[in-house]
Amino acid sequence: MAAALTGDTAELADLLRATAAGDQRAFADLYRRTSSKLFGVCIAMLRERGEAEDVLQDVYTCVWKRAGGFDPARAAAMTWLITLARNRAIDRLRQRREGPLDDATMRELVDDTPTPALSAESSQQRIRLERCLDALESRQKSAVRAAFFTGATYNELAERCGVPLATMKSWIRRSLIRLRSCLEQ
Amino acid sequence: MNEPFNGDREDLTHAEYVLGVLDADARAALERAIARNPRDAAEVARWQKHLLPLAGDIAPVAPPDYVWARIQSALGFPGVQARAPVQPHRQSLWQSVALWRWFALGAGAAAVACIALLVALPRAPSAPPATQVAYVTARIQQDNGLPGWTATLDTMHARVVLVPAAPNPIPNGRVPELWLIPHGGKPIALGVFAPDQATTLKLPRDVSGKLDAQALLAVSIEPPGGSPTGQPTGPIVGKGELHI
Predict the structure, then answer these.
(1) Which pLDDT value is given to residue A6?
(2) For a FRET experiment, which of A115, B124, B136, B215 has its CA 20 to 30 Å from that of A8?
(3) Where are the domains of chain A?
(4) Could you tell me whether strands B216-222 and B175-181 are parallel, antiparallel, or unpaired per DSSP bridges?
(5) Does the domain spanning B89-243 belong to CATH 2.60.40?
(6) Is there a contact between A147 and B19 if contact means CB atoms under 8 Å apart?
(7) d(CA B154, CA A146)
(8) Residues in chain B closer than 8 A to A170 (CB atoms)
(9) A chain contacts of residue B77, beta-carbon cutoff 8 Å
(10) CB distance from A135 to chain B under 8 Å?
């Protein structure tokens, strides 16, 4: 299994390298294999399909132009792509002036203990991260998950959870410190 | 008391950046730092490695096909049917958005005249049987009186070419779907399309017998992927008679 996973990661890295060299077919293949995941990421954060489509277009336009900046030694191809999508989606969220979340969305994101749809590439790290998240207090774990999935600011998270800003900051910052020591031990 | 206090003092900006909780200014400041300082970049990469596995929980969602078409168009890839102006030689007439948009905005009679011209072009297949309709157009009018799209049904090649004229914005998260409504019959789905660029849809082979002057084309607003029921579920935002 490990060999297959590595193969997948390596293939995506090859496609990104070929894309950087201007290979349109490789770029199309890359899109075919990764766009559903990135679109899922955009929809989760933006909660709005039309905007998610715009951001997805923006992301792949950027991939075509900046694939040369991908360094497989630094990050797996999928991590690089998801990061790019998240950053674009967050930028878009920050441009919005209205509150990006409704309460139902928040509940859905916070209360769920999802069955992780483990992506092949990251299943090992995902299991480890889940173990470390489970060691947090449930409110803090929820706050971290909500932050990651929605891209909301401290202010927005505090408002949505009905706690003071300082409390929300403290929950998340303490969680980050604990996650780091748990993940790096 | 047994909670650590250093959480309020320690610099966690890189982690907060990756988690996505920083406001626009703080994000921009860190992005500048990343570009300048390899240590900032390395610290961000470290947190990405820690936190990005959470993205495994996000279910993939297939984007609509027109997003890929838009990407190709934006990057200027060749061989893409796009908004870009097309060389004005005859074979490109079908794809010429400007021409079709002009049709849509111009008088219906002029459009019909132009269609007659098109049929006469050398590209048109030799002498279609007199009873068989080759090209049928419809201007899809909206409630505001403006044409939303021009549709040209090409029964010879079993396709519909839809060209935007002045479409009203489509609600976010929804897509327009084109329907053929035969006289006295139920709507027949012709497919969802990109509201803001020329789109070619397949025409079911069996509809050519249903194209008459009393049939209508209509556009309804549907969930992504189209009506789940096979009949329009959202509001009709435009309709038009067939010009035969």
Answers:
(1) 52
(2) A115
(3) 2-95, 103-184
(4) antiparallel
(5) yes
(6) yes
(7) 51
(8) 7-8
(9) 24
(10) no
What are the beta bridge partners of residue B152?
A: B137, B161
pLDDT of residue B90: 39
| pTM listed for this prediction | 0.58
**What is the domain partition of chain B in residue ranges?**
6-57, 89-243
Q: How high is the pLDDT of residue A133?
A: 94
CB B16 within 8 A of CB A146: no
CATH number of A2-95: 1.10.1740.10
Among A6-10, A177-181, B182-186, name the most confident range.
A177-181
Order of strands, sheet of B175-181, starting from the edge strand that comes earlier in the sequence: B188-192, B175-181, B216-222, B236-243, B135-142, B147-154, B159-164, B199-202
- Compute how many other C-beta atoms are within 10 angstroms of the C-beta atom of residue B126: 5
CA distances, A81 to each of A26, A97, A139, B159, B161 (Å): 15, 27, 30, 37, 35
- A166 phi and psi, to 5 degrees? -60, -35
A2-95 shares its CATH topology with A103-184: no
We find that the CATH architecture of domain A103-184 is Orthogonal Bundle (1.10)
ipTM over 0.95: no
Report the chain A residue with the minimal C-alpha distance to residue B66. A53
Alpha-carbon gap, residue A151 to B20, rounded angstroms:
5
Interface contact B173-A50, CB threshold 8 A: yes
Q: What is the pLDDT of residues B84-109, one digit of tens each?
A: 333 333 334 444 444 444 444 444 44
d(C-alpha B156, C-alpha A49), whole Å: 36
Say whether B61 and A24 touch across the interface (CB within 8 A). Answer: no
Q: Which residues of B137-176 are buried (b: 16+ CB within 10 A; e: fewer)?
A: bbbbbbeeeebbbbbbbbbbeeebbbbbbebeebeeebbb
pLDDT at B9: 66
What is the pLDDT averaged over residues B208-223?
84
